[in-house]
Structures are given as structure tokens and as C-alpha cells.
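To: structure desk
From: M.T.
Subject: fold request, one chain
Message: Could you run this one when you get a chance? Sequence is below, nothing fancy, just the single chain.
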Amino acid sequence: MRDEGTLPSRLAARLAAAGRPCRVINGAQLGSVSGQDLLSLMLWLQGGRRPAVVVMMPGFNDVFSAELNGRAGLPHKEWHRRSEFNIQLSQRRLLAALLRNSGLGRLILGYETEAPDRRVVRPDTDALAERTAAILDVNLRCARALAAEFGCHLLAFWHPHLFAKQTPTPYERVWRDSIAFGRPLYEAVERRLPRDGTLTDLGGLFAADIGPTFLDYAHPGEIANDRLAHVIADHVLRSLGSIPVAKETVPC
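Reply: Done. C-alpha cells follow.
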């Protein structure tokens, strides 16, 4: 994707076209969940940043982290973090990890070693969805309170997703099928999203699209990004109100 086609770029262009040019900074990290975004916001504010508007877009990562970990609220692939913590301080653990993750080691051991600590008893879908939605709600409320304390406005959107698209292209269908195992939880969480204005649900924004929309299992393409930016820009402009133009907008 071209830089000018990314969501932050399109959002900046939309705001500039509306007469409110802003510096838009992408604070997101690959695979981050809402709890990590909350921490990132705290660190951002600790560092002296004072954005006018903070945008959070939870969705795919929160749900699939819960699906893969069997628990809500954990970072993506938490088992890697646990197994790798301080591993260099123990020669035995380091050598064991090298063996487990080498091709020869996998052949000798004769079993899948991708996630050795992930074999947990997964709660039923409704219970896991309830917990995932509850943690998301708490994270968003904490982020909103934190932002308000420092004079920032927080906007939160449920990210558009491929499951909602009624007529996916053959390419998109391949991606959708590859993550079909997580669809029941995704839809169960979506039914439990807060409806009190804490989160704006954009999950079905591209539901009626006929042509290509998504690049992969989660990320919209350039044209879709522009449409998404148009929706977000409307909310940002309403939030800006009398805030000086010189401040910045930070998507997380």
C-alpha cells in the first residue's frame, strides 16, 4: 500500500480538505490489543504529548487474541512472551528453545511446538465473549478518562471486518475462510459491544461492498481506507470544536 493510501494519510487529507489541517500520527503497533493501546496512550502522555483527539480502533486483535489465548485481555500470542521472558539468562532454557524451534528439533520431537503453553481449557464462546467485551469496555473507559484528564478527546471505533461483508470477492473469501474458526467468538463479542456511546460500531461499514475491499483478513485497501477516514473525520471535526488547530490527532 502506498503511504498516501494509509488510514492516517487519508484522515489527514480529509481533515485538511475540511479546513482543519492536523498532524496525524499513527501510534498503532502490529497485533496490539486495547489494553496495550491504553498503555501506549499513558506513555504518550507521560512523554509530554497532548493530542487534541485520540482515536482507538479495537476489533480483530482483541477478539483473535482471546480466541488464540483462550483468555480475554492478553496480548497476541502471550505464550511467546512467557516462554521468551529472560530466556538469555538461562543457558538451558535458551538451548531448549533453539532445539524446539529448529526444523530438526521439531522432527525429532515429533509434535507441534508453535504454542506449547497454549493448551488451556478454553471457556465456551459466550463466556469468553462476555469477558472480552467487558475488558474492552473497561479499557476504553480508562482511556477516555485518562485522555480527558489531560485535555484530550478520545474517539473509539469498532474496526470494519471481513465477516460482515455479504459478498466477498474470491480473494477475500480465501482470507475469510482462513480465520473462520474465530467467527463465532467475533460475532458473539460484537453483540456485546457497549451501546452507550463509548464505542462507535463500524464493523459493517463495508458489508454491502461488491468489489475488492480488504487486503487480507483484517486490513482495508486504499479506497476503503478513504471511506473509513471520511467517517472518522466527521467525528474528529465534531470533537475538535473550539480546540486550536495546532494540536495533533493520534490514531492508536
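Reply (cont.): The longest strand covers residues 153-158. Let me know if you need anything else for the meeting.
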